[in-house]
Every structure is written in C-alpha cells, then in structure tokens.
Amino acid sequence: MPPLPPIPRLGRRTLLLYGLGIAIILFSLGNIIWSTIHLNRIGSNSWSAANSKAQFISEGSFSNSLRHSAIEAVNIVKFVAYGGMFPENHDNENANAIIDDRIDSNSNSKDARQEESVNHTDESGSIIPFELSVNHLKLITHAPGKPPTPPLPPHASSSVPNEDFLPVVRPNEVTFRWRHRPRVGSPAADAARVKAYRIIARRFVGCDNCGSKGDGDGVLWDSDKVVLIDNEHDNDLPTSIRWPAETALDIGHMIEWRVTLWDMADQTSTSSWTKFAVGPEKEDDWKGEWIVHAIDMATFHFDRKGDACEKWYMRHPLPLFRGLLPYQSLQSFLHDDDPLVSALLVVSGLGSFRATFDGVPLSPSGPVDPPFTDYSQRVSYRGFDVTNFLVGDDNVGSHVVGITVGSGWWDHRPVTGMAKPELLANGPLTVIAQLYLTTASGKVHITMPTKGSTATWQVSRGHIKESDLFTGEMIDLSTLTEMEGWDTSSKWSIAETKLSPSQNHWSLPVSYITNITQRERREKLSVMANALDKSEMTTRTTRSGYLASPIGQLFPSEIPPILPMERIAPDEIHDLGSGRWLLDFGRAFSGMLHFDKGLPQPIIPHNNIYPRAHGFGDASEKRWSFITVVYGESLEMTTGDINRVLVAGMGLHDGGPRHNSEPEGAQDNAFCFPDDHDGILTQKDVYVYPSESITNDMFSRARQSHFTTHAFRFAEICCTSEPPTNVHALMYRTAMQEW
Fold first, then answer.
1. How confident is the model over 546-560, as pLDDT tens digits?
2. How many CB atoms lie within 10 A of CB 332?
3. Which of 174, 201, 339, 703 has its CA 20 to 30 Å from the CA of residue 501?
4. pTM score of the predicted model
C-alpha cells in the first residue's frame, strides 16, 4: 500500500481567515438562537409578537428571516476564507467566463432580480435593462410597506389605481434613464458592454376595447437601433437619453416606453413597458385655481380680530374638498367613434393632501405631500391615472374626486419657539386640481377645474379635528362614521348657501386671495436676515385686505413621494397597567402606527386618572370616549415611561426625570401650547368619539393618522383592556432605493 501523501501545512494567514470564518458562523448562530428566544419570550406583563404571530407577523416571515440569516452567514464565511474574493472555478483570463449565482449575494443584485421579474421580457440577451426612469423618477406600482386597504364606503368604486406613484414631467423636459445588469449564466464577454440600444415610446391606452392607439400602434417616438460599438464606432452607453425636441408632447397624455439592449453577441433583451404622464407647465395651462373654505380665508383678513393661535383654532376641524364629474358632462366629451383611452388627474394641496376617486384612495402617500419647498415660490403637484374609474360597464354614472388636507408646513400650530409663520409661507388650507380626458383620436379635454363659487366643487369641515407635523393628529371617529362615503356620488348633495363651521355641512369654496406680493415677502425676509436694510425696501407693508402668503408656481413633483416603505410588527407588547400598553419595535424610524383591524373599545382608568401625557381634559369632562397613542425613541430610566423630551420636546418642556430645562409649569401659559401635553410638547395622536354613548364597533374604524410624522421606537396606547390586534408601524420615507 503506497504511503499517504503528506498533509499540507496551512499558512498563518489561512488559519487566521478560517478562524475568523468560524467565529462569524458562531456569532450568526448565536444571534439566531437569541432572536428565537427573544421573540418567543413570554413574561407575566409582556405580550410577545412571536406568541401572537398570526396577529402581528405574516405567515412564514420569521422562518424566511432565519433562512436568510443562515445564507448570509455562509456567504460571509466564503468571502472571508478566500481573502476578500469569492472562489472562481475557472481561469480569470478566460474570455468565456460565466456569470453565476454568486452575484445574488449582494442587495443590489437582489433588487435587480426583483425588478427583472417585473420589468423585463424573456429574451436571450446577456444584458438585462431594469429600473427605467424618466427625469430620475420611477413608476411605483406598489409601495413596499403599503397597509391593507381600509373598508371602503358601500357605494365606493370597485376599481383600483394602477400605481402608487406616477411620474409626471413637463412637455419640454423628458430624459430617459435605466440601469442594466448581466444575466445569470451568461458569458462575461457578451455582457461586458452594451453594443446598441433602442427606445420606443407610445401613447398609453388604459383600457381594452376602447379604441386603437392610432397609426403605428400609437408610437410617438422610435429611436431605432442606435449602434454604439461596431467597426466604425466604440462609444459607451450615454448616461441619459433626451426626448427629441422635434417631437411635441401634449399636456394630459400618458406615455408608455421601453428599451431594448444589444449585448456584444448581438443578442437582445427588452424591458417591460413603463409609463409617465405629461403635466401642465405654465400658469396658463391651469384652468383650475386655488380654492379654500370661506371661513378659513376670512381668518387671514387684516380686520379679523384675534391672535394667531385663536385664528388657528378657527380653522379647525380641517376642511374636506370634493368635486363632481356629472355623467352628462362626461358623455359630452366622448363619442362611440372616439372613446376615452386615458384620464389624468393632477392635484396639489397646501399643507398636505390625499386624493380619492369615487371613495377609493389614489395613493398611500405620507404626511408631507407635496414635498416641503418655499411654497411662496414653488409648489409641486401630483398626477394620478384614474382611467380605471371611468371606463367599463361598472363605471357608468357620475364620479367624485375627494381631497383630504392636513396642516403640514403651511398652517402649523403657532407654538412659541417653533418655526414661526413669518419665516415660513403661511395661509389657509387650499387645493387645486383638474382632470385631463384623452380620447382615441389623441384629443385632450380639461374638466373639473377647481373654481371658487361654482357648483362643481364643495367644501366642508371634516373628521380631522387637529393636525400638526410635530404634535400629532386628533381624529373624530363620530364624524368619520357620519360622513362615510362623502367622496362618492351617492352622498353628493346640493351645496348650502349659508356658511357654517359645522362638520358635514357642504358649501361652495372661495378663491384663494392675498394682498401680499412676492416682492414684499422676499424683501421682508431679507430684512429679517439682515441682508437688506429696512430703508431700502421698495414695497410698503400691507395693512389691509388678506395677509396670507402668496402661492408660487406649480411644477410636477421632481422627487419621489414619501411613501410607507416598510411595515413593521412589534417585537414586544408590555402591559403597563391601567389599560396602557407599550409597543417596542426594536429600532427607531419615522412614521406612525396602523391598526389593520381598528382599535378595541376604550376603558376609563381607575378613579378616572389617566397616565401622564394620555389625558384629554375636555373629553373627560364631557364623558367622551377616546384613545391616545404617544410616541418616543427611548424610555425614561426612572419611570419606564416614554421619554417625550428627547423627540418632539424641542426644548418646549418643563423638566422630566433627567432633562430639567424649565421649572415645572413653565409652559402652562406658553403661546398656543397644546392642551393636555403636561408641560412637554408631545408626539401624540388622539382618536375620540365625542358622545357619551357609543356602539361596540366605533373604534374599529380607526386606522392611522395621516398628516403627522413621529420619530419613535416605542409607542404607548391608552386606555384599552387589551392591546389592539394586527397593529403595525408604517415607516415613511422618500421612496428611493436604499444602498
């Protein structure tokens, strides 16, 4: 028997790498074991998310996370063991190197694979295009953290929007971009460079059997095959491709486009179709105007008595706007030989807005929409594809657009110490909208423009009693129930001629008015910033008329909206006693809670004494039922309560166990300080039913606050006998891909 070959000695570097790899494996396994024990821990005063997995975590998500952790651990060990490089089973100089599945170990490739399944047709090319964008904006069909659709009104439309975000561009500014990646298993030499590309853009047709797209299948522009590399050329792929100036785009049209790429072997891969809309550009393109509740507009008149806080409360509850598209009006635009093929609704609202069509939400956009700008200079608008709601046998009849608004940065609470109205543009909550209808012939009709004192649009006080980006939102569940279906044609009624601050009292809006000019506002800000001497002002201070800020030019949103990008189940739920529940989500983020099945019925704590920050004096005196949600990033070390000072306090507080900035009671007389915040400006949402008698399901209609944002890891809910089931946190942020 021949002797065995000697065992090779391992070098010091190899032993070190193997030792490090083993350490990483042990650490990963320990982390998995700890997570398993932690999520299944059950204490006498703790509800575990894992114990109530069916309530809080989708089926299989925990096992998937374990599998993912194990795979990542193995990948890390491979990476370390080979000195920072994945092992290759072939010669690096081989021109026919094969791109294998190890590309899947990084997150960018994972996103690419997900995008490929949606954005790519099945062809044999080695280079796959994905993440198509126009003006850096991508179509977002479904926000990753989008919550379940709440129960809709009985007469709401059965149609749903096609996407959560539709890019809108101006007709003279259209630039195409995309990313590309090699196909797994393809030869590296074939996928090394893009040899040629072709872009095709055509008019979007949003329905079947509603007319052809016109000549050439509706193609508006075909770049033909643009060769980058051949015997005469050796060019890199451009970073962007502009729409040709000689091909005009019509405002109101929606455009579909796709790209085909050729690899070095002259094989092709083509993306799926994506789309964008062409929106209004100049002031003359807008037939609509900014409209406002007449009572709100009056609070900005120079002769109106009261201080800023009193006037702020006069503008509450917040208004709802709705517009009617009568069936007869719709039919006047359409004919059998020229049917409707697309419908584009453009909307903006200050401070923030959410739009519905026939009772159906058009987007789960977040607390700041439009994005924050100097609203006296520029205001962005959104576009929504509402074609689905207007075509088909199920959608015959009149239609209603609903717009809910929040205070945002436009009409925030004027608390002493916070951002001051004279620094930020400020005015009554206001909206502007119009609807573009495109027929098969390409003709565009503009309808439903917002106008003051016209029967097409109405306004009423709604269910949001208060809204502030910092201090939270107060939602009137009684009004929410009473006004159910307010944005459907079944609840449309003739506007009242008499003005009223009451909820569910629909009257005609008025046009937004201001006597402050753009120049005057700019000069005032320059004087305040010591950039201009007061004697050098060319305008006089306005002391008559309406003193609201001017509203700037409208332009399509140039960044993705704030959307729910993650839906997070609580790690733990603790019973703090007296009907108070503490939810721990394990990490801090910005957003709010969403109650998938509503809130349980409230209870009254022992001796009617509510825990600190959870009181609501006015409701307690009137024996109203209410539930409060308080948010925070950390807990106080001495009490275990949420540390409210660190987050929304902004220095506006009178102490706390560790943060003594002011004597106790110092904020009692602070200007416009919120009631029931116990001396600390608090992140707090309130769901109230202003009645002594309620039915068992009234709080089950509560879902989430909309026009506020909270920075938190912890949330306290008070006061209920049991924690809410199916509660999640929605993490809101700008809808951009993370690195």
1. 999 999 999 999 999
2. 11
3. 703
4. 0.84
